[in-house]
Amino acid sequence: MLRSAVVLDAGMPLQGARTRLFAQPEDAHIVVRTQVGIELTFHLFRAGALLDQVRCLPATAEEPRLGDALHLRLLPQAPVAQLADLDRAALRAYHGIVLDGPAVVGVVTARPPRQEPPPAGPPPAVPPSAGAPPSGPVEPPPAAGDAPPSVPVGPAPSPGAPPPARAPGRGPWRLPIGRTRSAGATPSPDVGERPAPRKMSPPGPTRSAQPAGAAATRGGAGQALRPPVPSAGGDARPVPWQAWASVELEKDVLAPGEAFELGIGLAHEAQPDVVGGLIATVLPAGTSEVPLDITIVADGFEAPAGWHYRLVADVTDLAKTRLTIPLVAPRDHVTRLTVLEVHFAHRGVPCGVAFRRVAVQPPVREEAGMRPPASAIPWIGAATAATVNVDAAALPPDLTITISKPDGNEATGRYYWSFSSPHLLSLPDAPVPTDLGDDARTFAGRVIQLITRAE
Question: What's the predicted TM-score (pTM) here?
Answer without folding.
Answer: 0.66
